[in-house]
């Protein structure tokens, strides 16, 4: 995976652990990592992200690399109507 992703061993290991914690992958005893959502809901969310990425890849990339919103902004955004966002 390190070669295929062109990343360091540490970065790949941390990424796999994050995916495992998110319920997106399983790690087999032989070290094989395979996509397997922990629930149907997680699988549906992953599918929605895949669709969004196919339609608007730059928007998804910006969401990934942008800093998280402040707590106050998150609280305020919780009260916005969907059409406002």
Structure overview:
With 85 residues, the protein is mainly alpha-helical. It is 58% helix and 7% strand. The chain is built from 5 helices and 2 strands, in the order H-H-E-E-H-H-H. The protein has helices at residues 2-5, 9-21, 40-55, 57-65, 71-77; strands spanning 25-27, 33-35. Strands 1-2 form a two-stranded antiparallel ribbon. Strand 1 (25-27) and strand 2 (33-35) form a beta hairpin. Helix 3 packs across helix 4 (57-65). The longest helix is centred in the middle third of the chain and has 16 residues, at 40-55. The protein starts with a helix and ends in an 8-residue tail after the last helix. The model has no long low-confidence stretch (mean pLDDT 88).
Q: What order do the helices and strands come in, and which of them pair?
A:
Layout: H1 2-5, H2 9-21, E1 25-27, E2 33-35, H3 40-55, H4 57-65, H5 71-77
Antiparallel strand pairs: 1-2
Helix and strand succession?
Answer: HHEEHHH
Overall spatial form: globular
The class by helix and strand makeup works out as mainly alpha
Proportion of residues in helical segments: 55-70%
Q: Percent of residues in beta strands?
A: 5-15%
Largest sheet: 2 strands, antiparallel
Tally of separate helices = 5
Number of strands: 2
Gyration radius, in Å: 16 Å
